[in-house]
Design a protein that fits this description.
The protein has 13 helices and 10 strands. The protein is of the alpha/beta class. The chain folds into 2 domains: 227 residues, Spore Coat Polysaccharide Biosynthesis Protein SpsA, Chain A; 105 residues, no CATH class. Strands 1, 2, 3, 4, 5, 6, 7, 8, 9 and 10 form a 10-stranded mixed beta sheet that branches. Helix 6 runs antiparallel to helix 8.
Length: 339
């Protein structure tokens, strides 16, 4: 099978050459490389242009305007891609030479496979391996993720993806282009968790394969997407993205279960998680003193719960608000006063 490798680059000049070389040195050779830069402020574009005439590079595009989301770049790259399979090779990560050779044949062995991914090493900015990402999934199922497995995608969603993104790095994933397009592509407005949503939608279309072999080096550093998400000061905005993910999945699964009855369980689970997130959102508005958001978030949360629970929930919110106004807020103001 032919693979299109998309490198969505932004401000990772110090890592780019190592990243691209790890792609070009794959044992598997049936691929094209699509290089995309989102108007990086560093010299990323200069490095990419050094590779634009390489026989494996089919496109090298430098944006004239920053798109504001890596998922615009994902969609753009896939529109250009000629391959049946897609590998989003993030510009700050590194691949094991056997990455494609290990994962691509799985799609030939199982025609129903839509996504395959590998375990990843944790690697710092200096290229030092500091562990693996197995710790990320140990709380979900430490035994299962200790060896290779293949599952129905809907079963995987119900067990894992409905609770957290257990596919933490795009660089460790290969998926079918057709499935990506069939489910509508990535959602650019989900700047921090767009990958979580697209994985969930893609795997609903078939099977998923995981290898416990570490074939990807997932780099963490101050300018990574995860680091930027953690630095995000607007907690309400981060939670808003999680709610949007849940809402999008509910719309998607509600439509999908009409043609695939097995999706009904996934829809029900997601609906329950959406209701919980909306309740948490109302509580967050109170705790963070987002007073303009308290009433609208509370009303939205009330709409998702049975009528008989609503009075108790209203009392709970009122108590939270009273405690916040009379105790927590004055205490915070007192602590901020210069001594």
């Amino acid at each position: 099978m032919f693979v299109s490798i998309i490198v969505p680059s932004y401000n990772h000049a110090q890592f780019l050459e190592e990243r691209i070389e790890s792609i070009l040195n794959q044992d598997f050779h049936n691929f094209e490389v699509i290089l995309l830069d989102d108007l990086s402020p560093d010299n990323s574009s200069e490095i990419l242009k050094k590779y634009q005439d390489h026989p494996k590079v089919s496109h090298c595009i430098i944006n004239e305007k920053n798109s504001g989301s890596t998922f615009y770049q994902w969609n753009k790259g896939i529109d250009l891609a000629k391959g049946e399979l897609i590998w989003i090779a993030e510009s700050d990560d590194v691949a094991d030479p056997h990455f494609l050779a290990k994962l691509v044949p799985k799609f030939d062995q199982n025609p129903n496979l839509v996504l395959a991914y590998s375990q990843s090493y944790r690697m710092n900015a200096q290229g030092e391996v500091t562990g693996t990402w197995k710790t990320h999934t140990d709380s979900s199922d430490s035994e299962l993720f200790s060896h290779d497995f293949e599952l129905s995608g809907l079963e995987y969603f119900e067990k894992f993806l409905t609770f957290q993104n257990t596919i933490p790095n795009a660089s460790g994933v290969v998926f079918k282009k057709k499935c990506y397009l069939d489910v509508g592509g990535a959602t650019p407005s989900l700047k921090f968790i767009g990958d979580w949503e697209i994985w969930a939608k893609i795997i609903s279309q078939g099977d998923i394969f995981f290898t416990s072999e570490c074939l990807n080096y997932f780099r963490y550093h101050d300018t990574s997407v995860i680091a930027q998400a953690k630095k995000k000061k607007d907690h309400f905005e981060v939670r808003r993205q999680v709610i949007l993910f849940r809402e999008n999945m509910s719309i998607f699964l509600n439509a999908y279960r009409k043609i695939q009855s097995k999706a009904s369980k996934a829809y029900t689970i997601n609906q329950k998680k959406l209701s919980i997130e909306l309740r948490k959102n109302a509580s967050l508005a109170i705790r963070r003193n987002y007073y303009k958001k308290i009433i609208p978030t509370s009303i939205t949360a009330l709409k998702t719960m049975p009528v008989y629970i609503a009075p108790f929930y209203i009392i709970k919110l009122l108590l939270q608000l009273i405690i916040s106004l009379l105790l927590i807020t004055p205490y915070k103001l007192l602590m901020k006063k210069p001594r």
